[in-house]
Amino acid sequence: MFDVQKVRAQFPILSQTVNGKPLVYFDNGATAQKPQVVIDAISKYYSEINANIHRGVHTLSQLATDAYEVSRNTIQTHLNAKYPHEIIFTSGTTQGINLVANGFAAIVKSGDEVMVSALEHHSNIVPWQFLCEKTGAKLVVIPMNDKGELILSEYERLLSDKTKIVAVNHISNALGTVNPVKYIIAKAHKVGAAVLIDGAQATPHLRPDVQDLDCDFYVFSGHKVCGPTGVGILYGKESWLNQLPPYMGGGEMIKEVTFEKTTYADLPHKFEAGTPNIAGGIVLGTAIDYLNEIGFDNIAKYEQELLDYGTKRLLEIEGITIYGTGENKASVISFNIEGIHPYDIGTIIDKLGVAVRTGHHCAQPIMNYFNIPGTIRASFAFYNTKEEIDIFVEAVKKAQLMLS
Ligand code: C6P
């Protein structure tokens, strides 16, 4: 049975006060809080086995290497990837996307098309713009409707044999829309295009099965799944990872170096140049184990309750507009209150202990679509409660009163 109070007790930060008020942390879309097991695992790594990996014959180095590779296996199992070497440690979602976009410069030619969607985070726009600038390819955008859903008929119309890669998020960070990625992938494959899924906002809420989705690449960040910052994952199908050139050169990623020519290491090391975030990589495995113990079915069910309750309570507020009203949504509510700048609401409710994100959420094209400077975004995690939603709604009402 899912017991939210028991879960909350595992997160030391949640019992803090901020500005003299109990913390209500609704900025989980930006980064998730960390359970004690994760905090302890970081400390244990540095206290007991800190050493560089894949290099030393000494015992600590072997212990650290083993722990790092165990974590890779944990993530392979979690994503249902076919092989452990399809799991590449990165510094986060942003690096994962840049790695793939950079590699596609060897594949994409002038006149080809690279497709993203209207719902993307800047991390899944700018690296593809770099690619287009480098190669002369054209960036094509799948449009969305007023509910913040992708218009699939337009997507299918835009696909052609010129499309070389489609890069879309699984869940929108700014609106919470859950995209039909399996469908998107199948359609792209019909025209021979590869697909990268940005799973930064999906992985905290669901367990992706990369073989079932049949995506070519799937990326996410450790810090959003209760793990450490500075670590993330790029899953890539073996055939694609073999085809793409390395992203960074350096130690670890080579087979043999001479001044005339360098040959590259096998996967996954070809993409893991330099000393990685070892503690981060190991502890990401701990975080994934922790979430699986809670259970993604429990997480999904409970977060849906929070989303429904939060939406209902916020709609009590006069002058509110909620952005992102699609059928299939994660526990994210983006909104504005008529006549008030989102930043002002965010600042006042912070004084009342409530942490939300305000602004464009690194998704300016979405803000441009709605013709707004930004929104107030409350993003719930499985450790949040309905009582916290009540505190948050009352805080927003108070701010509205003060500002109007
Ligand atoms: N979104 C948010 O508050 P990094 O920074 O590499 O861990 O993740 C980038 C990223 C990529 N794609 C999506 C869909 C994202 O939501 C994010 C990060 C945070 O919404 C911080 S901007």
Automatic annotation (TrEMBL):
Superkingdom in the source lineage: Bacteria
Family: Belongs to the class-V pyridoxal-phosphate-dependent aminotransferase family. Csd subfamily.
GO biological process: one example: cysteine metabolic process
Signal peptide (UniProt feature, chain positions): none
EC number(s) per entry: 2.8.1.7
Function: Catalyzes the removal of elemental sulfur and selenium atoms from L-cysteine, L-cystine, L-selenocysteine, and L-selenocystine to produce L-alanine.
Reaction(s) this enzyme catalyzes, per UniProt: (sulfur carrier)-H + L-cysteine = (sulfur carrier)-SH + L-alanine
EC class of the enzyme, as a word: transferase
Transmembrane stretches, start-end: none
GO terms for MF: cysteine desulfurase activity; lyase activity; pyridoxal phosphate binding
Gene3D superfamilies, sorted: Aspartate Aminotransferase, domain 1 (3.90.1150.10), Type I PLP-dependent aspartate aminotransferase-like (Major domain) (3.40.640.10)
Keywords associated with the record: Lyase, Pyridoxal phosphate, Transferase
Keyword presence, Membrane: no
Pfam families linked to this entry: Aminotran_5
Protein name: Cysteine desulfurase
Source lineage: Bacteria, Pseudomonadati, Bacteroidota, Flavobacteriia, Flavobacteriales
InterPro entries given in the database record: Aminotrans_V_dom, Aminotrans_V_PyrdxlP_BS, Cys_dSase_SufS, PyrdxlP-dep_Trfase, PyrdxlP-dep_Trfase_major, PyrdxlP-dep_Trfase_small
Entry cofactors: pyridoxal 5'-phosphate
Protein source organism: Flavobacterium saliperosum
UniProt domain Aminotransferase class V: residue ranges: 24-392
SUPFAM superfamilies the record matches: PLP-dependent transferases
